[in-house]
Design a protein that fits this description.
The protein is about 5% helix and about 50% strand. By secondary structure, the protein is mainly beta. A hairpin with a 5-residue loop joins strand 5 and strand 6.
Length: about 170
């Protein structure tokens, strides 16, 4: 045995806690999936391939393996933070990464001139690291409601280390 102490410092994040594996054939419509390392919400289409002919099947669970290949899941998804369309085709028996998506409500305290918001957390602290949303409709609702002195509660969606304001609730005047 050695008397030396060894200290290892991790500089990389494997991302294991940001996602979990799920078999492609068990993922359902309006669920979440990771495509090109981005968290997405999707609609799913399942295809069976017989030579060069494809049949689209709505339910993953009813898809059977074809004569010359495996059932495939064709995922067409929208990035939940950028709204960009992404696609992937995966054999239904293979695993896909599914992001842990959380929604948290915070009371809006202030909007800074540089576009950051100050939010009141459940334990009474403030959260000051979020920008106003890029969605024009939601942005105008937040700015108008705050300007009118209303009490506003924003919903923040978080997944894979990113956060964004995705909804607004008016709880009345101050």
């Amino acid at each position: 045995m050695s008397d030396e102490e060894h200290h290892f410092e991790s500089k990389a994040d494997a991302g294991a806690s940001k996602t979990y594996p799920q078999q492609a054939g068990t993922i359902r419509k309006n669920g979440y999936i990771v495509i090109k390392n981005r968290p997405c919400k999707f609609n799913v289409t399942v295809c069976r391939c017989y030579s060069k002919v494809e049949f689209q099947v709505v339910e993953v669970s009813t898809s059977k393996t074809g004569k010359h290949g495996h059932a495939k899941c064709h995922f067409v998804a929208i990035d939940i933070f950028t709204a960009k369309k992404l696609e992937d085709i995966v054999p239904s028996s293979h695993n896909c990464d599914v992001p842990h998506v959380n929604r948290t409500e915070y009371q809006l305290i202030d909007i800074s001139e540089d576009g950051f918001v100050s939010l009141l957390t459940e334990n009474g602290n403030t959260k000051d690291d979020l920008r106003l949303p890029t969605d024009d409709n939601l942005l105008s609702q937040i700015k108008d409601g705050f300007g009118e002195g209303k009490d506003l509660v924003v919903t923040v969606m978080s997944a894979m280390g990113e956060e964004q304001i995705c909804a607004l609730k008016d709880i009345g005047p101050k």
